[in-house]
Each structure stands twice: as C-alpha cells, then as structure tokens.
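User: Predict the full complex structure for these chains.
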Amino acid sequence: MQVKELELKEVLATVFKVDQARIDDDASPDTIESWDSLKHLMLVLALEEKFNISFTEEQTVEIVSYPLIKLVLAEHGIGLV
Amino acid sequence: MEAKKIINKIRSRSNPQYSEYIDLCNYVDSDSPLVQELPSLKVAILRNFTVELLIPVIKAEIFLLGFRPEIYVGSFDAIAHDVMSHNSDLFQFSPDVIILDLWLNGLAPKLVEGFNGLSETSRHDEVDRIVDELNNIIMSIKQKATIPILINNFPLPDYASAGIFDSQESDQQVDTIINLNRVLLQTAKKYSDVYVVNFMTVFARIGSCTIDERYWHTARAPLGRQSLVAIGQEYGRFFRALKGKSKKCLVLDCDNTLWGGVIGEEGLNRIKLGNAYPGSCYQSFQREILNLYNRGVILAICSKNDELEVLSVLRNHPDMVLRERHFATWEINWNDKAGNLVKIAQELNIGLDSIVFADDNPFELELILDQLPEVEVIDLSGDPSPFRSKLLMRGLFDSLTVSQEDKGRTDMYLGDRKRKQLLATSTSLENYLCKLNMRAGIGIPCDINIGRIAQLTQKTNQFNLTTKRYTEGQIREFLDNPNYDVFYIQLRDRVAELGIIGVAIIQYSSDQAFIDSLLLSCRALGRKIEETLLANIIQTVREKGYKKLVGLFVPTLKNTQVADFYKKCGFELMKNEEDKTTWLMHVEDKEFSGPEWICVQKLYEARG
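Assistant: Here is the predicted structure of the two-chain assembly.
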C-alpha cells in the first residue's frame, strides 16, 4: 500500500502536539520533548489505527525515531510517496 | 475554525477514532479562550491499572458536553491510600465525580489466571474479599464527601479457564465473575450516587480486540484502542446524565427514516416496512424508538410531506410500531426544517439543546448543524441496518433514573393538546384555570421519589431561580440536615396526572430562611402553581419563627422568565450584583396565598 508521507507526519504531529515541520529524519525522543513513554504508546495506537496494521510487541519498542517508523511500516508493506 | 471541524466530525461520526480524540484533546489542552470560558468538570480517577491512554477520550467527551475538563489521576494501585484522609490530594482536588477504574487481574489475579487451582471455597472467598475491599473504599469516600462514584464491573474472560467445561457447572470462572458483578451491583445500590459502569456491555459492543495484551504486559495498560474509545464514551454518558445534559426529545424525519421509500411516491402499500429486509431495519429502529418513549423521551415528527399521508401511515399501516399517540407533536409541511424545529421546541416548551434530530438527508442535517448548532443530529444516510445502533451509540438520552413521570411524558403532552382545546372554549385565562380543576399536593421527598427530585434539579432550566444541580445523595443530605427543608409539589388536573413538577429547598440560618432552590418543570408553567409552592414556603418559614425570607435569582441563558419572580411576589430587592440579585421578604406581616383555583393538600406533618 502506498501512502503520502504527509499523512504519516500528520499522525506524529498530532500525537506529539508539534508542528508537522518538526517531523523529519532527525525526529526522535531526543529532539521532540513531548515524545515520552506515554506518548509513545499513543503513537503506536495512532499508527495502527491510521494504517490498519498491528505491530508486534518487539516493533512497538523498536520504532523510536522517524526513520525507524518508516522502516517498520515498510515491513508491513506500507510505502511512502 | 479548526476546533469546530473536529467537534462536528466526532459528533456526527458513528465511530470516531482514537486519533481524532487525541486531536480534540490537544485543542482542549490549549489555552483557547473558547475552552477556558467553559465551566469546569473535575474528574478524579482512582485506579489499579494504567489509565493514562484513556484520558484524551475522557477529556474530549467532557469538552463535547460543554465543560472544561480537569482530571486528577491517583497513584498506581493506591486507591485505599487516596481515600484514607480528608486532606489527601484527592479531596483537595474536590472532584465532581470519582471514577474507580479497576482491573480484575490487579484485584484478584487468581480469578483471572490461576482459576483452576482454586478450591470452590476459595473462589467464594475471593469474591467476598474483593467486594469487601470495594465496599470499604466507597464507604471511606462517602464518609468524607458527597461525590458521585462510578465503578466498573468486570469483563468476562475470552477463553474460560476450564474451556467448554466452564459453562457446564456453576462456580466455574465465567459464573464466578458474573456473580461478582451481581454482588458489586448490590453493594453499589446500598449507597446513593454510586453507579456501575458496565464494562461487560462495552466490551460486547466492540466485539473483539478489547484487550491489548502487549500493553498489559509492558505497561499494565490492558485496554485496546477500541476499548479506550468505547470506555471513554461510556464515561461520557455518565457525565452527561450527572450534569443534566441529557436530551429530552427525539424529532424524526419520515421517508427513509421511519420507513423505506417516499410515501408521497410509493404509497401506503409500497413503502418498505415489515419483517423482511429492508423493512425489518426500519421496524427494529422503530422498536428502539418505542423503548426510548417508554423511558420518557418525547417523540416528534419534522418532515417534508403531505401531513395526511403521514398520518395515514401512522394510523393504518399494519407494520408500524409507532402510532399517532406516541408523538407529542409534529410539523409535517414543506417549510424549512430549522424553522419547524424551533416551532416544535416552543410548543413542547423545551430548549433547542434538549432536542435530537434524526434524518437521512445530509442536506437537512447540514442545515440544522449550521443554523441550530444546539440541536444534536443523528445522521441516518445510507444503509438502514445500523439505524438502531446509530440511535443508541451516543447515549444522548441516558439518565441515571427513570421515574414515573418519565414514563408518562408523552401522555402529558397529549393532555396539553386537550387543555389547549379547553382554553379555546374559555372566556378568560382565569376561567380556564378554574375549569382545569387543579389539585396540588405538597410533600417531603422519601425514598420512592428522591430520584425524581434530583432529576428535576438536574434537568430544569427555565423556571429555575438558582439552577443548582443536585444528586440523590445531596438531596438525602438536605433531608437529614435539620437546617434544611425540601418540599416537592405534585399536580393533577381534569385532563391528566402531571406527577411531581416542582421543588423547593430552604436553608435556615440563625436569623433568616434562605431559598436555596425553587424550580418548576416546564410542563406546569403558566398555571401559577409556583405561587402555591411559595405560599407553603412562607407559611413554613413563619411557623418556624423566622422573620426574614431571602431569595436569590441567578441568571442563566434560559431562566430570564423568572428574573422578576420575587418582585412580582412582593419581595424587596436587597442587592443587585452582576451575577445575581438578592430579594427579601418580611414574612411576619405578609399575607401571601396561592391562587384560589388550585386546591392544595399537605402530604406531610410539619417538622420541628
């Protein structure tokens, strides 16, 4: 499935309550203050809802940066355009 | 207007998503003046699991009801500690509602995961122990404050520990948990204002994926995404009922809403209605509407049709569940529906914000959302099979009690129609009021009607001098307190029994009596029955030896009609402040009696 990268950024921006422009390849708990453990749980739920997928427990722990999120989404067959 | 877009999206969507709630919650947390100006609703959540993911939904639901949420979350699994002392953080926070969020695995892990290792006696012991523990928590809260408590029951396991054998014997796992839930309900019923939140039905609603095993193990956060949304919404229903925001009237379109097809084109024999699809969808929708009717919801019709054609369906179609007598009023014509809804509200003497409008036509729904934003709409466009659940899912009509008055509500409005005929044949208003043959009874609330009294304080908006909302528990406190009197007034006339239609609460201090609340249901307006109630107050106050009676008028958007009430009744203005006016009557030298055409009976013995 192909989705617009903008849609992915929107999910992160909503969950972390930041401007979409802040979501780039550097985005991680180190650069985004509100990315704490609770918001991380919310992020997982929001991504699963948006793309209608289900992460494994391992994946939920892995996706701690924007590039890693893209990588794991690719494992679920979701490509960004 | 970003916020309005999100709000309408959530309101009209049949299944709003978790992310949309996060989005709305971000807005609620912002410092927008639109949010800041709202009255607050403070909710304390005491819990034995991770509820943090639930909070965006709860906050958004509170906001959608017109309040600014303030949330207090107790420490993880420390409920007994939270409720132990008067000056704990919990009571400092002074919540409007306390939620107990309990996960069975935390309370009694053996009942959940080690069930087969338990003897029959220890199964019973576990149930007793949990109920004791919860009873102590509730008692501890009740000793310190009158705050409504919401407590959840326990969902059933997806796989019972003894497999299919579990259902063959009593005292197996499912039976034990059902029994636990039953005892929990009995415990809750011992108190006023303790309400059970049924997690079993919430989970039944979602079907599968109720629990997130990953999050349970990693974060002690057991609720799956859909559960978070559904449980948050369920709490929203309780907040709606507790804060008096329940809707009173369902206004329905006809074509493709009550039946399939267009009566004007297809005719009585061709519209789709009956026990075969798709007619069966409309029938089951009508049955659910009838359920609402029997719960006290007023029904009305607003449709663009020929009136006689619609009436002929109501009267003659063999498969109609709803009949003419179920509808309190209707506007069936070709005028615009916004105007018609306003007329219906006026005729029924209710606010537009008490009305829910259901229609299949997106154009009409848009028009109402745009022109009458106070009205809630239910979008019935498309497939009729989910109509029933669309009607129920938001709990718009939910209330915490169903009184006798609720059940007879539409009869009441039919009575109104008869009274209007009587009025038309009367020479003057007084002549009409005399002809009505009104008999009033004034009483002190007791167990069977305290629910109705609390409900009246929660729902009455127009004839309400102070608009103070009280729970059953608070009414009970007033009754137990020698410094308070609570009176209700009930009414019957030659057309119908109106039931309890007014409440007065009086507070006594050393040198004066103070009218804390004085209100009258809209069904009894225009008969001067308020003067009968006031006369009783004045007499009581005088008999108790007080010389001064003080009343307050606190203006709201809806009670302007009573701004002059005290003045008209001979009170003097004492203080004129921006947010209230204070009125005084010297009762010792004041003769005040109610209208002579109302025959009054006292239903109580005077208290000391």
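Chain A has one domain: 2-80.
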